[in-house]
């Protein structure tokens, strides 16, 4: 009896093992594998997670709308920038003043022998001095720049200016107005050399830049006896008053 029971149990065990084996080979087992194989299908969330950057991009797009808002404020900033550029434009408008000064050469009108009358006369005080007077005889303003360029007869050198007499600005003469330059003819103590008597005086005019040609020279009349000068000969810058011209 025991032997037959053991045989029956053994047979039952074989039967269960066979059923288990069969179950592993049937469609249920395949479905299990299919379920594990369906995990890539379940990768849709991973696809969704792969879309997460797009969502975050759209989210950043939402932030981008905020950024657009920022851009809007940036537009305000740009607007303020425009107003800033407007202020720059106003500065440029102020800069037009220098532009106007850049136009000054076009309006610069030098005084010279063609639009003035020029006289030269020795004075009693201070001693050994002569006063040159230039009067605007034209119909519009003219400008006297720097100092007169003097030449007695065929003199080969140019008298130097008295630097201390340099004015703060160019002397401008309205029609009918006069300007002056003082001339030291010779040293009062006789220390000058190369003395000579000039019979003819040529007064040259300078242009806008030093030593440039300011137009026709003038030849004022001198006393019949002429004018004595020596190596001390110097001249002042153009002055608005005769007193200033004879100060040096």
Automatic annotation (TrEMBL):
Which Pfam families does the annotation name?
DUF4232 (PF14016)
Q: Which UniProt keywords apply?
A: Signal
Compositionally biased, Low complexity: which spans?
A: 45-58, 88-102
Where do Polar residues bias regions lie?
A: 109-119
Residue ranges occupied by any DUF4232 domain in the UniProt entry: 111-239
Q: Which PROSITE patterns match?
A: PROKAR_LIPOPROTEIN (PS51257)
- UniProt signal peptide: 1-23
Segments carrying the region annotation (Disordered) are 26-121
Ranges of Gly residues compositional bias?
Answer: 71-87
- InterPro entries, from UniProt? DUF4232
Record flagged with keyword Magnesium: no
Q: Does the keyword Signal apply?
A: yes
Recorded protein name is DUF4232 domain-containing protein
Which source organism? Streptomyces labedae
Taxonomic lineage is: Bacteria, Bacillati, Actinomycetota, Actinomycetes, Kitasatosporales
């Amino acid at each position: 009896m025991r032997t037959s029971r053991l045989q029956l149990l053994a047979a039952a065990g074989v039967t269960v093992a066979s059923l288990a084996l069969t179950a592993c080979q049937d469609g249920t087992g395949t479905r299990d594998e299919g379920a594990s194989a369906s995990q890539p299908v379940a990768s849709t969330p991973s696809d969704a997670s792969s879309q997460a950057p797009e969502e975050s991009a759209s989210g950043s797009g939402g932030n981008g709308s905020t950024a657009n808002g920022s851009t809007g404020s940036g537009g305000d900033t740009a607007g303020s920038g425009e107003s800033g550029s407007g202020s720059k434009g106003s500065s440029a408008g102020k800069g037009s003043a220098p532009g106007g000064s850049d136009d000054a050469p076009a309006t610069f009108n030098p005084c010279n022998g063609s639009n003035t009358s020029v006289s030269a006369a020795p004075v009693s005080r201070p001693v050994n001095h002569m006063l040159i007077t230039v009067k605007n005889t034209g119909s519009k303003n003219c400008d006297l720049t720097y100092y007169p360029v003097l030449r007695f007869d065929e003199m080969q050198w140019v008298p130097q200016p008295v630097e201390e007499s340099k004015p703060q600005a160019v002397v401008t003469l309205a029609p009918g107005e006069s300007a002056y330059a003082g001339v030291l003819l010779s040293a009062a103590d006789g220390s000058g050399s190369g003395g000579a008597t000039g019979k003819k005086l040529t007064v040259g005019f300078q242009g806008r830049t030093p030593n440039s040609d300011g137009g026709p020279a003038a030849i004022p009349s001198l006393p019949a006896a002429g004018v004595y000068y020596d190596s001390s000969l110097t001249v002042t810058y153009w002055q608005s008053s005769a007193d200033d011209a004879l100060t040096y």
